[in-house]
Amino acid sequence: MFDYKLLAALAAVIEQGGFERAAQVLGLSQSAVSQRIKLLEARVGQPVLVRATPPSPTEVGRQLLNHVQQVRLLERDLQRQVPALDEQGIPERLRIALNADSLATWWAGAVGDFCAGQQVLLDLVVEDQDVGLRRMRAGEVAACLCGSERPVAGARSLALGAMRYRALASPAFMARYFPRGFEVARLARAPAVVYGPDDFLQHRYLASLGLGDGFIHHLCPSSEGFLRLTEAGLGWGLVPELQAREPLASGQLVEICSDTPIDVPLYWHHWRNGGQLLGDLTEHLRQAAPAWLVPL
């Protein structure tokens, strides 16, 4: 039989990125949290954490975290069926990994009514769409919105649609780097704006134009900051069409190469045994996403 106080300690250390913040969340001393982790490791006979900054789960730690995520959701189902078991009456907190561009554009509009109606609190982990699934594989989140179709073991994936991106720049940037009009060969020598080292969208766009992946770029790990740098003329960037409508209409941004969008598929991953709440959210997204995303 699992001691769920020990598993809660493991989950808190991973979710909070360390023992000190985990202790604050659990209302315990840092020493008490450490003791619970050591006791858990003694019971399973091997380490559950890699002691690094931040800590990361071992393989057995990932299996335990996956179990914790699913148990939390199943407990909510039981509390709805037997209200007397819900002693604290605290809304469920759903931990989800998603990409920054979805968070900056369509996510809130798509899930707002659902969260209000179901009294769900969101704990959002922002990751690039190409790497967010790692969080789910590590047992850190109950669901994930990412660009990978293949689900992890014990989970399902649902194709929601695609985010359409357009390569944009300011008029001043275009005048500076393309004074005679857009030339594909000059694009790799014009600075780009890239979200982060795991963002390969610009590489794919350059490849679609017949260019290699060697190009100069700024790094800006903020969806809002990305747009602001592009508007200010620091570089060209692939901006979500949903986010680009106003600056395109006002002339703040222009498309560097007309009618050459690139679509990024988005898949919703959720635990197969994630309970009624996760199932209801999945169905809600299936119906709501087409209003925001383009069909695959």
UniProtKB/TrEMBL annotation:
Keyword NADP: no
Record domain HTH lysR-type: where: 2-58
Annotated keywords: DNA-binding, Transcription, Transcription regulation
Coiled-coil ranges per UniProt: none
Entries under InterPro entries matching the protein: ArgP (IPR017685), ArgP_gammaproteobact (IPR023490), LTTR (IPR050176), LysR_HTH_N (IPR000847), LysR_subst-bd (IPR005119), WH-like_DNA-bd_sf (IPR036388), WH_DNA-bd_sf (IPR036390)
Domain of life: Bacteria
GO MF annotation list: DNA-binding transcription factor activity; sequence-specific DNA binding
Similarity comment: family membership: Belongs to the LysR transcriptional regulatory family.
Subunit structure comment from the entry: Homodimer.
Function description: Controls the transcription of genes involved in arginine and lysine metabolism.
Protein name: HTH-type transcriptional regulator ArgP
Organism: Pseudomonas parafulva
